[in-house]
Structures are given as structure tokens and as C-alpha cells.
From TrEMBL:
Protein name: Arginine--tRNA ligase
Primary location group: cytoplasm
Annotated catalysed reactions: tRNA(Arg) + L-arginine + ATP = L-arginyl-tRNA(Arg) + AMP + diphosphate
Motif 'HIGH' region in this chain: 122-132
Signal sequence, start to end: none
Quaternary structure annotation from Swiss-Prot or TrEMBL: Monomer.
InterPro entries: aa-tRNA-synth_I_CS (IPR001412), Arg-tRNA-ligase (IPR001278), Arg-tRNA-synth_N (IPR005148), Arg-tRNA-synth_N_sf (IPR036695), ArgRS_core (IPR035684), DALR_anticod-bd (IPR008909), Rossmann-like_a/b/a_fold (IPR014729), tRNAsynth_Ia_anticodon-bd (IPR009080)
Segments forming a coiled coil: none
Naturally occurring in which organism (per UniProt): Actinorugispora endophytica
Amino acid sequence: MADPQEVLTQRVQSALGAAFGADYAETDPVIRPSQFADYQANAALALAKRVGRKPRDVAAEIVAHLDVADVCREVEISGPGFVNLTLREDWIAGRAQELRADDRLGTPRQEPRNIPIDYSAPNVAKEMHVGHLRTTVVGDALARTLEFLGHNVIRQNHIGDWGTPFGMLIEHLLEVGEDSADAALLKTDPNAFYQAARVKFDGDEEFAARSRGRVVALQGGDAETLRLWRDLIELSKAYFNRIYATLDVTLTDADLAGESTYNDMLGPICDELQAKGIAEVSEGALCVFLDGFTGREGKPVPLIVRKSDGGYGYGSTDLATIKYRTEELKADRIVYVIGAPQSLHLQMVYETARKADWLGDTEPVHVQIGNVLGTDGKILRTRSGAPIRLMALLDEAVERAAKVVAETRPDLDDAARAAIAREVGIGAVKYADLSISHDTEYIFDFDRMLALNGNTGPYLQYATARIRSIFRKGGLDPAEATGPVVVTEAAERALALRLLGFGAAVAQVGDTLEPHRLCAYLFDLAQSFTSFYESCPVLKAEDPSVRASRLALTAVTLDTLVKGLGLLGVTAPERM
RNA sequence: GCACCCGUAGCUCAGUGGAUAGAGCACCGGACUUCUAAUCCGAUGGUCGCAGGUUCGAAUCCUGCCGGGUGCGCCA
């Protein structure tokens, strides 16, 4: 057990039990980081009323029964009843030493749960936009993190591969030819393909009529139509996969679970809802009306499960995902990483599923993703007002990074510089998405995210590059830097203490589904390291035992930064 | 009208009911014959939107306002 907060919680709980009886042994001792010590226990203030004594007396009682001689160097009652706890340097060093031999770096292995994660979900024949970028990056980080914590993560890429636009798209594909340059646009610039189809649909009545007929054929299972439809999807998949490869995202074709996969479930779902009296026909459409969901002018808002033309919309497919994930995937928790604007819709889907008894004990969670804005505070667009092509945006990030690398590393060859620029550029974009709490809107700003200062990807990558440089320069292998760790200097102490918090930070991301907390931890760690780097020579340390200790601390820091960034889906180049 | 998100330093953002609310950027002042200065150290900077309430204690929880954003019947 390396996490001081966890260790102190147990110790203080024991003291509470010893002092006030077994009933109090479960009380949260409220261990928090302190500005007056390493940690403080705040339990005494809350307990004072319950035990009918003054807070300071309660604190004194806790301290009297507290057995922390091996962990703390100083225990002090302060203010109205805070218990300040200062850790022993040898204890910190010992725990840091243990991390050196722990490939999980202090991360707990949790009781495995089945967790489908719905994320990315681009549309076939449409450009992914920055909103997709964010759900993709955040969802992937959550998937990696939950997996590392020991869970059975099931990635679910709910692509938009079904619905009315496909009539139009198929007709257009048929006209231009499956092997044409126009069709190839699907792989590189899908919006161009979509727009071309759209223009024809809006301007050519005969084409529009054929498109509508094609939708019917598609839903009716017409073989030739299905073949063209699959073609469309194959071309789009090539585009998705190129984006995922560029982004270094873990999604593969095996994770595809698009809307079309639920086709067979939609009819029965509607029948069941109707049979159970949950859904009713209104204005020709099959709708679910739920208590407490009213729209404009107090009118009840429906969740439409079957349209008046007999087609199925996203209301029914989203219900199908719940049914499938609880019944087939045996989900304990379903994570939906989807835009914040869908909040109302998802609430209605969850509530409907609950009423239909499809949820059981499964907990659906909406990880709300805020909109991405430009520096002008409006939805991100190009200067001419068009939506930004995601690949172009990623290219620009890499280009900007390349410009910096060209200036700072003239000593490296072109290939090496290009590789660094790729990792830095992509890492910067991903980290920027992850470092801000996912539910708020965020302002997309290249200059800020590519900065080498502040809570940015490049800053963290730079810290790892400097560490690797130390080992390279010394001709040493980090794996062989085994210590022993001894903590004396303030910067060594701060760094070592920080290292002990990694596991707790990872666990917190798993609990709260908030990757930005891991970013905050890693940034803090990197800052602690750079301070250490400035004030504590490693290779040049004159005393061999000091050198060995610092090398071990440096190696643990490297492992932690690389592992932490890895959980976020960000790589760190060997040199920068 | 209803729902969700937001309002914290000039800007971008953190903040687990605990003491004097933090970080980065910007601005100002310092530190390079370096283990990568793409860095570090320091200073300045606050009516936590407003008003009540709960609490020993509120940026945090509750209620009501004000302001901004988004969504709300046949696209998904």
C-alpha cells in the first residue's frame, strides 16, 4: 500500500475505534492534503457533536490512540481540532522504493466489472468534427484506464450506418460508380461526397424520389441495395481507421457496433413497449411519454420509437443498445461518452428502459462532452465559415509542432524530427481535450495546447524526454536503477511523495470517469520533477548512494509519466 | 416553459464540506561555460454572478433570482 492517504485513513480509523468504540471504526477520518503538513485529519470537528465533546478534545483522544510512529514524523493538533500529519522521510523513501518493483506503480486491481463504453460514433459518409474528436479521445482514455484497473471493457463504436440519408447516398454512389474518384472521396473528404449527394437530392426531384425508394429497398433487405450500402460503409471505415491510426486510438473494426446491428431488435422492442403499455401511438408515431418530461409550453415530450412512416429513429436504436448491453454483454455499468446536448434524450432512454425492466442493476452513465469552440467563443469553423476537416486540423497541429522542432533540434535528421513532430502535435491535441473537465465547453487554441509551459501534452513529454536523456547520457538502463531510495533534499521529498499518489489518481479516474484528474496529477508530478531536476544533480551527484537514489526516483518518475500518459492515449517521444 | 452545462485572478482553467481559494498564460524581477533554458525561482493579481438557507465550518450542499451557452415530435 503506497498511497499515504489510504494508509493514514486506516490508521486513523483504528484510532477512532480504539478511542470511541467499534461504532466509530468505520467513520471517514477525512484525510486531506494540508498546507500545514503533508496531510490533515479533519474527523474530530465532525465527530465533536456526535460524541458530545469539544473538537480539540476529540482530536487529542484520536492522537492518544493513534499508532503511526512508523509512518509519521510529526503529529500535531492545530486550530479548532485539525490533526496535522507529517510523514517520515524513510517511510516515503520506502514506499517509493516499492514502486520501483511494482509494474502497476501502486494502482489497485479492482473487482472486474463488465463495462461497455460507447464512444466516437462517427457517421458514415460524413466528416468527423471536433466534437467526435473529443468523444473519441475521452472515451479511449476511459477505456484504457478502466482496463488497467482490471475491468472488462467492451468498446462500442456506435457508428451512424443506417437511416434515411442512406437512400440518397446509395443513389449517388450508384451514379458516380463504386470505383470512381468521387467515391474515393469517402476515404479522404467524406463531406464532399455527402454534399454532392445532398445537392442532387435538394435540386433534382427525380433523384429525390429514387432516393426515397432506395430507403425502402434498404430497409426491405434488397440484395443489390445492401451490397451498395456495405460498399459505402467499407469506404467510410477506411476513413475512420485512418483517423484512428493518426490519433493512436485503440478502436478497431471489431469494436464497430453501428445502428444497423440493432435492426432485428427494433420491431420487437416497439411491440414490447406497446404491450407493456409504455408506448402509445400519437400523431401516427409510436411514442413513449414519461412523467416530468415536458417541452415547450408544457407539452409532454415524446421519445419517438417508431416514426409515422414506419421507420425507426435513434430513440429505438438507443433503447436497443441498452437491452443488448445488459442482456448480451452482461453490463454492470454502461458508459455513454456522448455530447452534452443529448442529455435530455438519454435521460428519456434510460427512464424508458427502466420502466420496461431492461436495466436491472445496470447503471447507465452519460459522460457529457461539452462543445468545442474556436478562440472567438463560437463553434469551431474555418475562417470562411465551413466546418473544419478533422484530418486538416490534425495536420496543422503536426505542422506547427514541426516548425518548433525544426528550430530547436537542427542536430536531428529529418525523419527523427518528423517523428517527434507527430507525437508532439497529436499528443498536444489529445491532451488538450483530456485536461479540461469533459462536460464543459472548451476553447480550441493551437498556441495554448502546443505550449511547452503549463498543463500541456508537450510539457509532460518534455519532462520524459529529459529523463530519458539523463539515462542516455549516463549510458544507463532505467530498469537497472533500483536504488535504494533515500530522501533528504526538499525536492526529493516532494517528488517521492508525489509518486505515491499515482494509483489513487488512476482509481479516481475510473470512479468519476474524469480523465482530467489524471492530467492534473501528471502535470503536478512533472512540475515536481522539473524542480528536482533543477536543484538535485543526478548523474553528477558526488555521493554514489545519493546518485543511486536519485536515479531510482528518476526512473520511477519516467515509468509513472509514461504509464499515465499511456492511459490517456498519449505517447512520449524518446527525445524532443 | 422544461431540461442539461457554465459563471472562480486581465485570459484559459483547477478546486474531495475544512484553516489564509490554487495552477498555467500574460505582465514585472531574477537564474544558462546545463543532466535538453522547449526549463526553473520569485513578485503582482480575487466581492468564487447575486441573495437567502443548512452547518462548528460553504467556491463546494439546498432554494430563489441574474447572466451566458445548448437541447426540447418524426435527422442522429
